[in-house]
């Protein structure tokens, strides 16, 4: 059985502790104040979660920092740099500013890439970035299971992560390379804005839809668009 160490006992840390424990992992829920972790674990009353310090949580097989970049996440994680080398680190960060109106990072990077840049020896898998905290208790909307977009450049790490989270009540979508976190994180910025506009916030999520398609089948435009008209490879 794998252990998952969570650093931070805020909205996401607590929900993810419960989600990983219910998926069958052993969870170390770490706080800067281990007494806070004790109180939360007692209140959750979910088997498989142990209160911890950050130091203790960082001993787990997989480590998940559940804190904000704007609150000094990179600096807080520095002491664990060598300890986490070669380990899977699950990055859930969205680089929100203090009033959640925008990001503190420019468009050509992401929280996931910044973490990887500072800690190149960590095996970073980006996940849960698109899932707002109030979605964890009921991730299904009108019977539709919603998505968690998963990004990473280390395919073996991504596969190990996908095996562990498989029992969770989400559909996990391989969303490609780590740099795609730029898009996923900004999709969260957008869903937050849309959720507020339409009165859903914070109960909304994404589901990517599609169906198998064969080129040329039932394409009612194919006789109209010839290569001479600028068709070509599609
Ligand atoms: N909220 C969401 O819906 C959501 C969705 C997707 C991704 N995320 C990402 O998940 C991460 C955590 O978000 P959250 O909403 O769970 O945050 P939160 O409720 O504010 O909790 C953050 C936790 O970080 C820890 N922490 C460590 N250093 C801190 C500092 N200097 N100041 C304040 N807290 C500090 C604290 O835990 P201890 O006191 O126990 O150490 C705190 O409870 C962020 O990167 C966010 O972008 C959030």
What's the helix and strand layout?
Blueprint: E1 3-7, H1 11-22, E2 26-31, H2 34-44, E3 49-53, H3 54-57, E4 62-65, H4 73-77, E5 88-91, H5 111-118, E6 123-126, E7 140-141, E8 144-145, E9 147-150, H6 155-165, E10 171-174, H7 181-198
Parallel strand pairs: 1-2, 1-4, 2-3, 4-5, 5-6, 9-10
Antiparallel strand pairs: 7-8
The structure holds NADP nicotinamide-adenine-dinucleotide phosphate.
Summarize this structure briefly.
It is built from 7 helices and 10 strands. With 234 residues, the protein is of the alpha/beta class. The protein has a domain of 163 residues: Rossmann fold, CATH 3.40.50.
Rounded to the nearest angstrom, the distance between the terminal CA atoms is: 47 Å
CATH architecture of the domain at 67-229: 3-Layer(aba) Sandwich
Radius of gyration of CA atoms, rounded to a whole number? 20 Å
The CATH homologous superfamily of the domain at 67-229 = NAD(P)-binding Rossmann-like Domain
Assembly classification: single chain
| Strand adjacency order, main sheet | 3-2-1-4-5-6
CATH topology of the domain at 67-229: Rossmann fold
- How much strand content do the residues show? 15-25%
Q: Quick check: average pLDDT?
A: 95
Bound molecules: NADP nicotinamide-adenine-dinucleotide phosphate
The CATH class of the domain at 67-229 is identified as: Alpha Beta
- H/E topology pattern: EHEHEHEHEHEEEEHEH
Which ranges are low-confidence, i.e. pLDDT below 50, for 5 or more consecutive residues?
none
The helix content is 25-40%
The 3D shape can be described as globular
């Amino acid at each position: 059985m794998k252990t998952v160490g969570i650093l931070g006992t805020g909205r996401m840390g607590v929900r993810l502790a419960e989600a990983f424990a219910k998926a069958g992992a052993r969870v170390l829920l770490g706080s800067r104040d281990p007494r806070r972790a004790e109180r939360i674990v007692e209140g959750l009353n979910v088997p498989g979660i142990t209160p911890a310090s950050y130091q203790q949580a960082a001993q787990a097989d997989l480590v998940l920092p559940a804190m904000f970049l704007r609150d000094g996440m990179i600096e807080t994680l520095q002491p664990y740099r060598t300890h986490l080398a070669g380990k899977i680190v699950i990055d859930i960060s969205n680089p929100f500013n203090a009033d959640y109106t925008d990001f503190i990072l420019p468009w050509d990077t992401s929280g996931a890439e910044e973490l990887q840049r500072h800690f190149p020896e960590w095996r970073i898998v980006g996940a849960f970035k698109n899932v707002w905290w109030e979605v964890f208790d009921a991730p299904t909307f009108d019977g539709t299971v919603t998505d968690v977009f998963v990004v990473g450049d280390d395919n073996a790490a991504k596969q190990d992560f996908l095996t562990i989270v498989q029992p969770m009540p989400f559909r996990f979508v391989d969303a490609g390379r780590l740099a795609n976190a730029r898009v996923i994180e900004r999709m969260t910025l957008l869903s937050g804005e849309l959720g507020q506009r339409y009165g859903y916030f914070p109960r909304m999520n994404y589901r990517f839809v599609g169906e198998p398609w064969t080129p040329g089948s039932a394409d009612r435009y194919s006789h109209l668009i010839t290569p001479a008209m600028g068709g070509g490879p599609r």
